[in-house]
Protein backbone atom coordinates (compact mmCIF):
# COMPACT_ATOMS: atom_id res chain seq x y z
CA UNK A 1 0.00 0.00 0.00
CA UNK A 2 1.00 3.61 -0.40
CA UNK A 3 1.84 5.80 2.56
CA UNK A 4 -1.18 6.70 4.67
CA UNK A 5 -3.53 9.32 3.27
CA UNK A 6 -4.91 12.30 5.16
CA UNK A 7 -8.44 10.88 5.21
CA UNK A 8 -10.14 10.02 8.53
CA UNK A 9 -8.33 7.29 10.46
CA UNK A 10 -11.22 4.99 11.40
CA UNK A 11 -10.39 1.38 10.60
CA UNK A 12 -11.31 0.60 7.01
CA UNK A 13 -10.36 -2.39 4.89
CA UNK A 14 -8.75 -0.40 2.06
CA UNK A 15 -7.39 2.50 4.08
CA UNK A 16 -4.10 3.61 2.52
CA UNK A 17 -4.97 2.38 -0.97
CA UNK A 18 -4.89 5.13 -3.59
CA UNK A 19 -7.11 4.80 -6.66
CA UNK A 20 -6.83 7.02 -9.71
CA UNK A 21 -10.24 6.94 -11.39
CA UNK A 22 -10.31 7.89 -15.08
CA UNK A 23 -13.69 6.28 -15.62
CA UNK A 24 -17.12 7.78 -16.14
CA UNK A 25 -20.80 6.83 -16.52
CA UNK A 26 -21.49 3.60 -14.57
CA UNK A 27 -19.36 0.43 -14.76
CA UNK A 28 -16.08 2.10 -13.78
CA UNK A 29 -17.57 4.52 -11.23
CA UNK A 30 -19.55 1.67 -9.63
CA UNK A 31 -16.27 -0.20 -9.15
CA UNK A 32 -14.44 2.80 -7.73
CA UNK A 33 -17.32 3.76 -5.45
CA UNK A 34 -17.17 0.27 -3.95
CA UNK A 35 -13.41 0.64 -3.40
CA UNK A 36 -14.02 4.09 -1.90
CA UNK A 37 -16.73 2.77 0.41
CA UNK A 38 -14.18 0.27 1.70
CA UNK A 39 -11.74 3.05 2.54
CA UNK A 40 -9.66 3.69 -0.59
CA UNK A 41 -8.74 7.27 -1.45
CA UNK A 42 -10.33 7.59 -4.88
CA UNK A 43 -9.34 10.57 -7.03
CA UNK A 44 -11.87 11.02 -9.82
CA UNK A 45 -10.32 12.65 -12.89
CA UNK A 46 -12.83 14.63 -14.96
CA UNK A 47 -12.75 16.81 -18.04
CA UNK A 48 -12.69 20.56 -17.34
CA UNK A 49 -15.40 22.74 -18.90
CA UNK A 50 -14.13 23.86 -22.31
CA UNK A 51 -15.22 24.75 -25.82
CA UNK A 52 -18.92 24.66 -24.99
CA UNK A 53 -18.71 21.33 -23.16
CA UNK A 54 -19.84 21.55 -19.52
CA UNK A 55 -17.09 19.17 -18.48
CA UNK A 56 -17.18 16.36 -16.00
CA UNK A 57 -18.67 12.90 -15.99
CA UNK A 58 -21.51 12.75 -18.53
CA UNK A 59 -23.89 11.45 -15.86
CA UNK A 60 -23.77 14.78 -14.00
CA UNK A 61 -26.26 15.98 -16.63
CA UNK A 62 -28.27 12.76 -17.00
CA UNK A 63 -31.46 14.12 -15.53
CA UNK A 64 -33.97 14.93 -14.42
CA UNK A 65 -34.16 14.11 -11.63
CA UNK A 66 -31.53 16.40 -10.13
CA UNK A 67 -30.58 17.02 -6.53
CA UNK A 68 -32.65 19.88 -5.14
CA UNK A 69 -30.56 22.76 -3.79
CA UNK A 70 -31.29 24.64 -0.59
CA UNK A 71 -33.80 26.81 -2.44
CA UNK A 72 -35.71 23.79 -3.71
CA UNK A 73 -34.46 24.26 -7.26
CA UNK A 74 -32.73 21.71 -9.49
CA UNK A 75 -28.99 21.78 -8.91
CA UNK A 76 -26.29 20.83 -11.42
CA UNK A 77 -26.00 17.30 -9.99
CA UNK A 78 -28.15 14.53 -11.50
CA UNK A 79 -29.35 11.71 -9.26
CA UNK A 80 -27.69 9.26 -11.67
CA UNK A 81 -24.24 10.76 -10.97
CA UNK A 82 -24.87 10.98 -7.23
CA UNK A 83 -25.68 7.27 -7.03
CA UNK A 84 -22.23 6.13 -8.18
CA UNK A 85 -19.68 8.67 -6.95
CA UNK A 86 -19.66 9.12 -3.18
CA UNK A 87 -16.47 8.91 -1.11
CA UNK A 88 -14.40 10.29 -4.02
CA UNK A 89 -12.41 13.46 -4.62
CA UNK A 90 -12.83 15.19 -8.00
CA UNK A 91 -10.11 16.89 -9.97
CA UNK A 92 -10.69 18.48 -13.38
CA UNK A 93 -7.67 17.95 -15.66
CA UNK A 94 -7.38 18.26 -19.44
CA UNK A 95 -5.52 15.07 -20.39
CA UNK A 96 -5.26 16.30 -23.99
CA UNK A 97 -2.69 18.87 -22.80
CA UNK A 98 0.95 18.00 -22.16
CA UNK A 99 0.82 19.45 -18.64
CA UNK A 100 -2.40 17.60 -17.89
CA UNK A 101 -0.77 14.34 -18.98
CA UNK A 102 2.21 15.07 -16.76
CA UNK A 103 -0.10 15.62 -13.79
CA UNK A 104 -1.86 12.31 -14.39
CA UNK A 105 1.47 10.48 -14.67
CA UNK A 106 2.57 12.04 -11.38
CA UNK A 107 -0.64 10.84 -9.74
CA UNK A 108 -0.20 7.37 -11.26
CA UNK A 109 3.28 7.16 -9.71
CA UNK A 110 1.64 7.46 -6.28
CA UNK A 111 -1.36 5.27 -7.03
CA UNK A 112 -1.99 1.63 -6.21
CA UNK A 113 -4.83 1.27 -8.72
CA UNK A 114 -5.90 3.03 -11.91
CA UNK A 115 -9.37 2.44 -13.37
CA UNK A 116 -10.27 3.69 -16.86
CA UNK A 117 -12.98 3.08 -19.43
CA UNK A 118 -11.66 4.86 -22.50
CA UNK A 119 -11.97 3.19 -25.90
CA UNK A 120 -9.23 0.69 -26.67
CA UNK A 121 -6.03 2.58 -27.54
CA UNK A 122 -7.28 6.06 -26.59
CA UNK A 123 -5.03 6.53 -23.56
CA UNK A 124 -1.95 5.54 -25.57
CA UNK A 125 -2.39 8.79 -27.51
CA UNK A 126 -1.75 10.64 -24.26
CA UNK A 127 1.01 8.43 -22.92
CA UNK A 128 -1.33 7.19 -20.20
CA UNK A 129 -1.78 3.59 -21.34
CA UNK A 130 -1.06 0.55 -19.21
CA UNK A 131 2.33 -0.25 -20.77
CA UNK A 132 3.62 3.28 -20.19
CA UNK A 133 2.31 3.66 -16.65
CA UNK A 134 3.43 0.20 -15.53
CA UNK A 135 6.95 1.08 -16.65
CA UNK A 136 6.79 4.15 -14.43
CA UNK A 137 5.08 2.32 -11.54
CA UNK A 138 5.51 -1.47 -11.75
CA UNK A 139 3.33 -1.91 -8.63
CA UNK A 140 0.30 -0.34 -10.31
CA UNK A 141 -2.90 -2.34 -10.84
CA UNK A 142 -4.26 -0.96 -14.12
CA UNK A 143 -7.92 -1.86 -14.74
CA UNK A 144 -9.48 -1.19 -18.13
CA UNK A 145 -13.27 -1.44 -18.47
CA UNK A 146 -14.54 -1.56 -22.06
CA UNK A 147 -17.50 -2.95 -23.95
CA UNK A 148 -15.64 -5.81 -25.58
CA UNK A 149 -12.17 -6.03 -24.06
CA UNK A 150 -8.69 -5.36 -25.36
CA UNK A 151 -8.71 -8.25 -27.86
CA UNK A 152 -11.07 -9.76 -30.43
CA UNK A 153 -12.85 -8.45 -33.53
CA UNK A 154 -15.14 -6.12 -31.54
CA UNK A 155 -12.37 -4.50 -29.47
CA UNK A 156 -12.74 -1.10 -31.20
CA UNK A 157 -16.51 -0.89 -30.78
CA UNK A 158 -18.07 1.39 -28.20
CA UNK A 159 -19.88 -0.64 -25.57
CA UNK A 160 -23.23 0.27 -24.03
CA UNK A 161 -25.14 -1.73 -21.47
CA UNK A 162 -28.37 -1.88 -23.49
CA UNK A 163 -26.64 -3.22 -26.59
CA UNK A 164 -24.64 -5.70 -24.53
CA UNK A 165 -27.79 -7.03 -22.83
CA UNK A 166 -29.03 -7.83 -26.32
CA UNK A 167 -25.78 -9.10 -27.83
CA UNK A 168 -24.88 -11.13 -24.75
CA UNK A 169 -28.14 -13.08 -24.66
CA UNK A 170 -29.85 -11.56 -21.62
CA UNK A 171 -32.74 -10.08 -23.58
CA UNK A 172 -33.39 -13.43 -25.26
CA UNK A 173 -34.33 -14.87 -21.86
CA UNK A 174 -35.98 -11.75 -20.38
CA UNK A 175 -39.61 -10.88 -21.07
CA UNK A 176 -42.82 -12.71 -21.73
CA UNK A 177 -43.00 -15.47 -24.29
CA UNK A 178 -43.75 -14.27 -27.81
CA UNK A 179 -47.26 -15.76 -27.76
CA UNK A 180 -48.22 -13.93 -24.55
CA UNK A 181 -49.59 -10.37 -24.36
CA UNK A 182 -46.62 -8.02 -24.34
CA UNK A 183 -44.37 -10.87 -25.39
CA UNK A 184 -40.90 -10.23 -26.79
CA UNK A 185 -37.40 -9.42 -25.61
CA UNK A 186 -36.97 -7.01 -22.71
CA UNK A 187 -33.98 -5.33 -21.15
CA UNK A 188 -33.58 -5.47 -17.39
CA UNK A 189 -34.79 -2.33 -15.60
CA UNK A 190 -31.30 -1.30 -14.46
CA UNK A 191 -27.97 -1.44 -16.30
CA UNK A 192 -27.00 -4.87 -15.03
CA UNK A 193 -24.14 -5.44 -17.50
CA UNK A 194 -22.52 -2.23 -16.28
CA UNK A 195 -23.17 -2.99 -12.62
CA UNK A 196 -21.95 -6.59 -12.79
CA UNK A 197 -18.85 -5.49 -14.69
CA UNK A 198 -18.19 -2.91 -11.98
CA UNK A 199 -18.45 -5.58 -9.30
CA UNK A 200 -16.29 -8.11 -11.21
CA UNK A 201 -13.75 -5.31 -11.71
CA UNK A 202 -13.74 -4.68 -7.96
CA UNK A 203 -13.10 -8.35 -7.23
CA UNK A 204 -10.35 -8.47 -9.86
CA UNK A 205 -8.64 -5.39 -8.45
CA UNK A 206 -8.66 -6.80 -4.93
CA UNK A 207 -7.18 -10.05 -6.23
CA UNK A 208 -4.49 -8.11 -8.13
CA UNK A 209 -3.67 -6.07 -5.01
CA UNK A 210 -3.30 -9.29 -3.04
CA UNK A 211 -0.87 -10.56 -5.69
CA UNK A 212 0.95 -7.20 -5.78
CA UNK A 213 1.40 -7.18 -2.02
CA UNK A 214 2.84 -10.71 -2.17
CA UNK A 215 5.13 -10.19 -5.18
CA UNK A 216 5.62 -6.46 -5.63
CA UNK A 217 4.24 -6.68 -9.18
CA UNK A 218 1.21 -4.89 -10.53
CA UNK A 219 -0.73 -6.13 -13.54
CA UNK A 220 -3.40 -5.27 -16.09
CA UNK A 221 -7.05 -6.14 -15.47
CA UNK A 222 -9.01 -6.39 -18.73
CA UNK A 223 -12.75 -6.18 -18.03
CA UNK A 224 -15.39 -6.33 -20.77
CA UNK A 225 -19.13 -5.80 -20.52
CA UNK A 226 -19.81 -8.57 -23.02
CA UNK A 227 -17.64 -11.08 -21.13
CA UNK A 228 -19.48 -10.21 -17.94
CA UNK A 229 -22.89 -10.47 -19.59
CA UNK A 230 -22.07 -13.93 -20.94
CA UNK A 231 -20.75 -15.05 -17.52
CA UNK A 232 -23.78 -13.76 -15.61
CA UNK A 233 -26.13 -15.93 -17.64
CA UNK A 234 -25.01 -18.48 -15.05
CA UNK A 235 -27.39 -21.47 -14.94
CA UNK A 236 -28.92 -20.55 -18.30
CA UNK A 237 -25.54 -20.60 -19.96
CA UNK A 238 -24.84 -23.94 -18.31
CA UNK A 239 -28.24 -25.23 -19.47
CA UNK A 240 -27.36 -24.46 -23.07
CA UNK A 241 -23.82 -25.86 -22.91
CA UNK A 242 -25.09 -29.08 -21.35
CA UNK A 243 -27.97 -29.64 -23.76
CA UNK A 244 -27.42 -27.58 -26.89
CA UNK A 245 -30.97 -26.29 -26.45
CA UNK A 246 -31.49 -22.53 -26.44
CA UNK A 247 -33.35 -21.33 -23.32
CA UNK A 248 -36.52 -19.42 -24.10
CA UNK A 249 -38.14 -16.44 -22.44
CA UNK A 250 -40.28 -17.51 -19.50
CA UNK A 251 -41.69 -14.19 -18.32
CA UNK A 252 -41.72 -14.26 -14.52
CA UNK A 253 -41.30 -18.03 -14.35
CA UNK A 254 -38.06 -19.90 -13.69
CA UNK A 255 -36.34 -22.07 -16.27
CA UNK A 256 -35.43 -24.87 -13.83
CA UNK A 257 -37.80 -24.63 -10.85
CA UNK A 258 -41.61 -24.92 -10.56
CA UNK A 259 -43.52 -23.18 -9.02
CA UNK A 260 -41.16 -20.22 -8.97
CA UNK A 261 -42.96 -17.25 -10.48
CA UNK A 262 -45.50 -14.45 -10.10
CA UNK A 263 -49.15 -15.30 -9.45
CA UNK A 264 -52.25 -13.12 -9.44
CA UNK A 265 -54.16 -13.08 -6.14
CA UNK A 266 -57.62 -11.58 -5.87
CA UNK A 267 -56.20 -8.11 -5.13
CA UNK A 268 -52.70 -8.04 -6.59
CA UNK A 269 -49.60 -9.99 -7.46
CA UNK A 270 -47.26 -12.04 -5.31
CA UNK A 271 -44.19 -14.19 -5.82
CA UNK A 272 -44.13 -17.89 -5.04
CA UNK A 273 -40.57 -19.24 -4.88
CA UNK A 274 -40.83 -22.93 -3.97
CA UNK A 275 -37.27 -24.24 -3.91
CA UNK A 276 -37.65 -27.92 -3.05
CA UNK A 277 -40.15 -30.77 -2.80
CA UNK A 278 -40.73 -30.34 0.94
CA UNK A 279 -41.68 -26.70 0.40
CA UNK A 280 -43.99 -27.74 -2.42
CA UNK A 281 -45.80 -30.15 -0.10
CA UNK A 282 -46.29 -27.35 2.43
CA UNK A 283 -47.53 -25.04 -0.30
CA UNK A 284 -50.09 -27.63 -1.42
CA UNK A 285 -51.37 -27.84 2.16
CA UNK A 286 -51.75 -24.05 2.21
CA UNK A 287 -53.76 -24.27 -1.00
CA UNK A 288 -55.95 -27.01 0.44
CA UNK A 289 -54.69 -29.54 -2.11
CA UNK A 290 -52.22 -31.82 -0.29
CA UNK A 291 -52.80 -34.59 -2.84
CA UNK A 292 -50.98 -32.57 -5.50
CA UNK A 293 -47.70 -33.15 -3.69
CA UNK A 294 -48.26 -36.92 -3.99
CA UNK A 295 -49.21 -36.87 -7.66
CA UNK A 296 -46.32 -38.47 -9.62
CA UNK A 297 -46.53 -35.61 -12.15
CA UNK A 298 -45.80 -33.03 -9.45
CA UNK A 299 -44.06 -34.84 -6.58
CA UNK A 300 -40.54 -33.85 -7.64
CA UNK A 301 -39.21 -30.64 -9.14
CA UNK A 302 -38.02 -32.43 -12.26
CA UNK A 303 -41.56 -33.67 -12.87
CA UNK A 304 -43.05 -30.29 -12.07
CA UNK A 305 -40.79 -28.68 -14.68
CA UNK A 306 -41.88 -31.27 -17.24
CA UNK A 307 -45.56 -30.76 -16.38
CA UNK A 308 -45.57 -27.04 -15.64
CA UNK A 309 -48.22 -26.35 -18.28
CA UNK A 310 -50.63 -28.59 -16.35
CA UNK A 311 -49.65 -27.58 -12.82
CA UNK A 312 -49.33 -23.81 -13.04
CA UNK A 313 -52.94 -23.19 -14.18
CA UNK A 314 -54.18 -25.28 -11.23
CA UNK A 315 -52.12 -23.21 -8.83
CA UNK A 316 -53.24 -19.97 -10.46
CA UNK A 317 -56.94 -20.76 -9.94
CA UNK A 318 -56.44 -21.46 -6.23
CA UNK A 319 -54.27 -18.36 -5.64
CA UNK A 320 -56.67 -16.06 -7.48
CA UNK A 321 -59.45 -16.95 -5.07
CA UNK A 322 -58.01 -15.09 -2.05
CA UNK A 323 -56.18 -11.82 -1.37
CA UNK A 324 -52.44 -11.46 -1.52
CA UNK A 325 -51.95 -10.91 2.21
CA UNK A 326 -53.75 -14.16 3.01
CA UNK A 327 -51.23 -16.13 0.98
CA UNK A 328 -48.22 -14.18 2.16
CA UNK A 329 -49.10 -14.72 5.82
CA UNK A 330 -49.80 -18.42 5.27
CA UNK A 331 -46.56 -18.90 3.37
CA UNK A 332 -44.59 -17.07 6.03
CA UNK A 333 -46.06 -19.26 8.75
CA UNK A 334 -45.25 -22.43 6.79
CA UNK A 335 -41.80 -21.14 5.77
CA UNK A 336 -42.62 -21.33 2.08
CA UNK A 337 -40.54 -18.70 0.26
CA UNK A 338 -42.31 -15.87 -1.51
CA UNK A 339 -43.05 -12.21 -1.20
CA UNK A 340 -44.76 -9.05 -2.30
CA UNK A 341 -43.77 -7.02 -5.36
CA UNK A 342 -42.86 -3.57 -4.05
CA UNK A 343 -42.38 -0.33 -5.88
CA UNK A 344 -39.43 1.78 -4.73
CA UNK A 345 -41.50 3.83 -2.31
CA UNK A 346 -42.51 0.59 -0.61
CA UNK A 347 -38.94 -0.73 -0.76
CA UNK A 348 -37.52 2.18 1.20
CA UNK A 349 -40.35 2.01 3.75
CA UNK A 350 -39.95 -1.72 4.25
CA UNK A 351 -39.05 -2.46 7.89
CA UNK A 352 -36.30 -4.87 6.91
CA UNK A 353 -34.70 -2.37 4.53
CA UNK A 354 -34.92 0.29 7.24
CA UNK A 355 -33.46 -2.04 9.86
CA UNK A 356 -30.51 -2.75 7.58
CA UNK A 357 -29.79 1.00 7.16
CA UNK A 358 -30.00 0.88 3.38
CA UNK A 359 -30.48 4.64 3.07
CA UNK A 360 -27.70 6.99 4.11
CA UNK A 361 -28.08 10.78 4.46
CA UNK A 362 -25.02 12.85 3.50
CA UNK A 363 -24.12 16.51 3.75
CA UNK A 364 -23.61 18.04 0.31
CA UNK A 365 -22.23 21.45 -0.67
CA UNK A 366 -25.45 22.29 -2.53
CA UNK A 367 -28.13 20.61 -0.41
CA UNK A 368 -29.09 19.40 3.05
CA UNK A 369 -31.41 16.75 1.59
CA UNK A 370 -29.08 14.26 -0.09
CA UNK A 371 -30.00 10.64 0.61
CA UNK A 372 -28.24 7.78 -1.12
CA UNK A 373 -28.68 4.04 -1.32
CA UNK A 374 -26.21 2.61 1.17
CA UNK A 375 -23.61 -0.03 0.47
CA UNK A 376 -24.85 -3.59 1.09
CA UNK A 377 -21.42 -4.58 2.43
CA UNK A 378 -21.54 -5.28 6.15
CA UNK A 379 -18.11 -5.83 7.74
CA UNK A 380 -17.80 -6.35 11.48
CA UNK A 381 -14.25 -5.06 11.97
CA UNK A 382 -13.78 -2.65 9.05
CA UNK A 383 -17.23 -1.28 8.23
CA UNK A 384 -18.08 0.92 5.27
CA UNK A 385 -17.93 4.62 6.10
CA UNK A 386 -19.60 7.49 4.28
CA UNK A 387 -16.86 10.08 4.42
CA UNK A 388 -17.42 12.28 1.38
CA UNK A 389 -20.54 13.19 -0.63
CA UNK A 390 -20.36 12.86 -4.41
CA UNK A 391 -17.98 15.69 -5.31
CA UNK A 392 -18.65 18.76 -7.37
CA UNK A 393 -16.69 18.97 -10.60
CA UNK A 394 -13.08 19.85 -9.72
CA UNK A 395 -13.93 20.32 -6.06
CA UNK A 396 -10.62 18.85 -4.91
CA UNK A 397 -8.28 19.92 -7.72
CA UNK A 398 -6.26 22.35 -5.61
CA UNK A 399 -6.14 19.96 -2.66
CA UNK A 400 -4.86 17.01 -4.70
CA UNK A 401 -2.30 19.05 -6.61
CA UNK A 402 -1.03 20.53 -3.36
CA UNK A 403 -0.50 16.97 -2.12
CA UNK A 404 1.74 16.46 -5.17
CA UNK A 405 3.82 19.42 -3.97
CA UNK A 406 2.59 22.10 -6.38
CA UNK A 407 2.29 25.63 -5.03
CA UNK A 408 -0.73 27.93 -5.47
CA UNK A 409 1.06 30.01 -8.12
CA UNK A 410 1.58 27.01 -10.42
CA UNK A 411 -1.96 25.81 -9.82
CA UNK A 412 -3.37 29.24 -10.68
CA UNK A 413 -1.30 29.36 -13.88
CA UNK A 414 -2.57 25.95 -14.99
CA UNK A 415 -6.13 27.01 -14.29
CA UNK A 416 -5.70 30.18 -16.31
CA UNK A 417 -4.35 28.08 -19.20
CA UNK A 418 -7.34 25.72 -19.05
CA UNK A 419 -5.24 22.71 -17.99
CA UNK A 420 -7.29 22.30 -14.82
CA UNK A 421 -10.54 23.58 -13.37
TrEMBL record:
Which is one GO molecular function term here? transferase activity
Keywords, alphabetical: Transferase
Q: Which InterPro entries match?
A: CoA-transferase_III_domain, CoA-Trfase_fam_III, CoA-Trfase_III_dom3_sf, CoA-Trfase_III_dom_1_sf
Q: Which Gene3D superfamilies match?
A: Crotonobetainyl-coa:carnitine coa-transferase, domain 1 (3.40.50.10540), formyl-coa transferase, domain 3 (3.30.1540.10)
Q: Where is the composition biased (Basic and acidic residues)?
A: 46-60
Q: Where are the transmembrane segments?
A: none
Spell out the residue ranges making up region: Disordered.
46-71
**Where does this protein have coiled-coil stretches?**
none
Please give the PANTHER family that the UniProt record associates with this protein.
SUCCINATE--HYDROXYMETHYLGLUTARATE COA-TRANSFERASE
Name assigned to this protein: CoA transferase
Q: Which organism is it from?
A: Roseateles amylovorans
- Lineage of this protein's species? Bacteria, Pseudomonadati, Pseudomonadota, Betaproteobacteria, Burkholderiales
